[in-house]
Amino acid sequence: MDVKLSQQDIKRYNGYIWKFFIGCFAFVVLLLALTSVGLFGTVKSFRDLENPKSNLASEIISSDNQLLGKYFVDQGNRSRVNFNQISPNVTNALIATEDNHFYTHSGIDFWRTFSIIPYNLLGKKQGASTITQQLARNLFSDEDRAKNPIKRFIQKLQEQITAVKIEKHYTKQEIITMYLNTVSFGSNTLGIRSAAQTYFYTTPDKLTPDQAAVLIAQLKGPAIYSPINHPDRAKNRRNFILGRMAEEGYLNDAQAKEYQAKPLGISYHPTNHYEGIAPYFRAELKKELTRLFTEQGIQKADGTPYDLDRDGLKIYTTINYQMQTYAEDAQKKYMQTLQVLFNKTIKGVSMWKTVPQFKMLIENGMKLSDRYKELTLQNKTDEEIRENFNTPDTLEIFTWKGDSTVIWKPIDSIAYCQLLLRNSMMSMDPKTGYVKAWVGGINFEHFQYDQVKAGKRQVGSTAKSFTYAKALEEAYSPCQRVANVPDTIYTPGSPPWCPASFDTKPGLLTLREALAYSQNWITAHIMKEITPVPVVELIKKLGIGGDVPSVPSICLGTFDASVMEMTAAYSAFVNHGLWTEPTYLLRIEDKNGNVIYSDHQPKVTQALSEQTAYVMTYMLKGVVDITGATGNRLRWKYNFTNPMGGKTGTTNDNSDGWFVGITPQLVTGVWTGFESRYVHFRSTSFGEGANTALPIFAEYMKSVYADQKLGIKKNIDFDVPKGDLPQLDCSVYDGGGGPQKKGANDVEKRLSF
Asked: Which terminus has fewer CB within 10 Å in the chain: N or C?
């Protein structure tokens, strides 16, 4: 049955339709107006936009302006960049895919909003939100976003209003920059800078069109289009974006096809708290910064304390990126060789039977382990815990070839760790006190205890230099000859003391020879002459902070010190007798570039006269120059010909091996040993400092000298001070100087006590 509408009816229905649309429009306008004045809640301010609440990683910067690492919490690995630090390929890929009218709209693309359905039907898939709207949406964290549909609708209106306001207050470049600094790219990565580093190990300004397309692809869904977990999806999405870039004129068709044919080319470097260069240094620096902020009351403008993991600080340090790399490479290169050597020396040997304390070490290691603590929290009995430790399990262990997954009893993994050699080293500029390299251990993820600053071990014969330095202060000459015979020291209230002597050089030796050959009897004789108290006073002036008893045996290094302390102490010999506190923090800036700390003044003490310090450099040169001396292999094996000196050290039972090397521009301390002193090399020829520590110094210095950009020169000698100096040509008495060939007194077969 046909129904015919009269003209009057048509007008009436048209009126209803217009009233409906006008009413809806008026309702939306009213909602927008009410929303803008805050009736439904406060609209996000531009302060929130410029200073988003999302966590901003703090960055640790090297002296050569490279990134050492970051402090951040999960989902907080974000670093900001400026527009001129972003490749145009990134912005082109973003605009072509997400908002091709970006440069013409004012925050809301009305044409795009109404045409999105037919636009998608044509195969040009895009969302309805503009880049500016997405930026406004990012002001609402996941926790802020309402689950209720009505409340979420109100938030959408707030986002629209904010988008329009953003367009009025910021340039298009600023909007792009703010957007790319705040979006997530998956893998615990926020912002384009972190994304470029994580996925391509590069910086945002160097991203190619295909790399940019891979990153922009993840904005549609970091989990769905992850190039790590779903490379096929990521590649398809990348190629779609490259096609869109060609359609919008950012690439020609040939270029787009060329990039589409390429593999993803991912160079994945996920950022975590363990990976990256100088992890031990970064961990110790964080403790220092926490203490510094508390002691000096360094706070934000609103009076709240800084959060190193969230506030985006820039922390400038003295660490040189290249030198740090050379130090870590030197450790890795030699320590894996040394570990193989140690493993061979104990092959077929039962540590349980030959080391009485080994069972105690394993017991203590078990109780200190995370597994033990976890089982304790589960209220497991002692018997259940021990059963757990003796039940095979899948474990991840450290090896020098990389982490390895094994099926072991957990108790066996503890024994394995006890038999791993440990090592640490620090290198510093002796004149400024600036720390250039800091290697606190062999692997931070597995062994987080720092052996540079926190760890203290017995120093062995490296302490002999302090006794000889005090003797020089008392007018002894480096060329003075002393009979190398036992000399017992009698101290009231203590038993007589006379050290043992190993590889004794008979007859009369100069003091320079005695130090070079590390002779115990002559060192003890000098201690007897000058007495312990003045030596202790000098040791304290040289920055050794632990307990150093006033007993004769300290001349042989029976006290403990850290690598940092020993390196700084030897730096005074190079720096005209001035001990300078090691410095590694230069300044701190907040996320806006404002300097919040820069006034560190290192402590400086005149520990020795300039003349004595210079004579000590001559003495320490003898350790390297004299044939058969404990450091002579630096000449005949490693072929160094430039001025350098140093001192080896080996403690009882070869538990600790040391070498502190000096050059005119750099002083470097190296320690090698095991977690426990009860575990050690069985042979001194393998366990002495000349074999366990000196080679790492040598490998490090070879790389440093080869890198001319560092400015560490071979053709300079130690500074000669003004004033009278004692005779400094002992060659008439001792083994002379200069490069030596390997002779009968093979240093590898000697004891460097």
From this structure: N
> Would you state the structure tokens that stand for residue 69, as one six-digit string?
């690492």
Which tens digit of pLDDT belongs to each residue from 216-242? 998 888 878 888 888 999 999 999 999
Q: Return the percentage of the chain with pLDDT > 90, whole number.
A: 56
Residues in contact with 76: Cβ distance below 8 Å, sequence separation at least 6, in sequence order: 54, 55, 56, 57, 190, 309, 310
Q: What is the dihedral of CA 303, 308, 313, 318, to 10 degrees?
A: 120
Give 268's Cβ-side CA count (13 Å radius).
12
**Residue 751 and residue 753: Cα distance in Å, rounded?**
6
Q: Choose among 494, 629, 499, 649: nearest CA to 561.
A: 649
Residue type, 635: R
The residue-averaged pLDDT of 575-585 equals 97
Cβ density class 634-667: b for 16+ within 10 Å, e for less: bbbeeebeebbbbbbbbbeebbbbbbbbbbbbbb
**Residue 57 pLDDT level (bands cut at 50, 70, 90):** confident
Residue pLDDT, tens place only, 651-666: 988 899 999 999 999 9
How distant, in Å, are the alpha carbons of 17, 33, 38, 155, 455 from that of 41? 33, 12, 5, 9, 55
> Residues of the chain with pLDDT > 70: what percent?
82
Task: Output the pLDDT for position 330.
Answer: 97
Q: What is the pLDDT of residues 429-454, one digit of tens each?
A: 999 999 999 999 999 988 989 999 99
Residue 359 has pLDDT above 60, yes or no: yes
Q: What is the DSSP string of 541-578?
A: HTT--S---SSGGGGGT-SEE-HHHHHHHHHHHHTTTE
Q: Could you report how far apart the first and last alpha carbons of the chain are, in Å? A: 116
Q: Decide: 418 and 411 in contact? Cβ < 8 Å.
A: no
Residue 712 phi/psi, 5° resolution?
-90, 110
Q: What are the respective helix, strand and coil percentages of the chain, to the nearest 5?
A: 45, 10, 40
Q: For residues 1 and 71, which has the higher predicted lDDT (pLDDT)?
A: 71
| Rg from Cα positions in the chain | 34
Say if strands 393-397 and 457-458 run parallel, antiparallel, or are unpaired: unpaired
Which amino acid makes up residue 356?
P
Q: For residue range 494-541, list pLDDT tens digits in order.
A: 899 999 888 889 999 999 999 999 999 999 999 999 999 999 999 999
- What phi-psi label fits residue 591: left (phi over 0), alpha (psi between -120 and 50 degrees) or beta? alpha
CA atoms within 13 A on the CB side of 568: 31
Q: Distance between CA atoms of 517 and 567, rounded to whole angstroms?
A: 21
The encoded tokens of residue 520 equal 């115990």
Q: Could you tell me which residue, 244 or 147, shows the higher pLDDT?
A: 244
What's the confidence (pLDDT) of residue 753? 24
Nearest CA to 124 among 245, 233, 215?
245
Higher pLDDT, 168 or 675: 675
3-state class (DSSP) for residue 245: helix
Return the closest-CA partner of residue 193 out of 70, 64, 285, 321: 70
Residue owning tokens 């060609």: 246
For 98-112, the pLDDT digits (tens) are 888 888 876 566 555
Strands (E), 153-195: 189-190
Mean pLDDT of the chain: 85
Structure tokens at 226: 């992850």
Say how far apart CA 334 and CA 703 lie, in whole Å: 14
Which residue in this structure is represented by tokens 């600023």? 174
Q: Say if CB 672 and CB 752 are below 8 A apart.
A: no
Q: List Cα–Cα distances, 57 to 46, 194, 200, 268, 309, in angstroms.
A: 21, 10, 19, 19, 6
Phi, psi of 335 (to 5 degrees): -65, -35
**Residue 124 host element (H or E):** none
